[in-house]
C-alpha cells in the first residue's frame, strides 16, 4: 500500500514541485490549502500517513500550522519545509528571529548529523537552496528538539528533529534544483517514520 502524504500548501509558488517529488516516491498525495475548511479532515489518520508542511510566505504564527500541529497531537509523522520548519520550532517552544541578512535564492553548504532525513548523505555536507528571512534561533531550542543541520558561513539552523516524536524540519528547500539530494531527504523522512513505506 502506498504511503498517503498530505501536503499542506501555504500558497507557495513552487508547491507543485514538492508534490511531484513526493509522487515520484510512489506515494499517494493529497494537497490541501493551509486555511481550507477540510484541512483537519485531510490529516486524519484514517486517510493520511504523513503530513508535509510546505513552504510559503508570511510568519509561522499566521500560517495555521500551529493549530494543525496541536490538532495532530503527535499522531502522525510531520515533515516541515521552510515555513513548516519554523512552525515546528515555534510550536515546541523555540524562538524565531529575523536573519541579519535576507537569504533569497542563494545556496549554502549545509552540515548535517547524518540521521533521520539526512541518513546516508555525504558527511562533508550538501549544497542547499535557501529562501528565508526568518530563522529558528538555535540557542532557544527546547530540550525536546535537536539541531540537525547548520549552514556554513552564517551558522543559521537548517534542520531540527523532535527527540521523541516523528517530527523533523528543514529550513532550506529540498524541492529546489539548487539543493543536492532533495529527493533523498524527503524519502528518508518517509521511510524513517512510516513503516509501510519500507
UniProtKB/TrEMBL annotation:
One Gene Ontology molecular-function label: anthranilate synthase activity
Keywords: Glutamine amidotransferase
Stretches assigned to the Glutamine amidotransferase domain: 7-190
Superkingdom of the organism of origin: Bacteria
GO biological process, one term: L-tryptophan biosynthetic process
GO CC annotations on file: cytosol
Protein name from the UniProt record: Anthranilate synthase subunit II
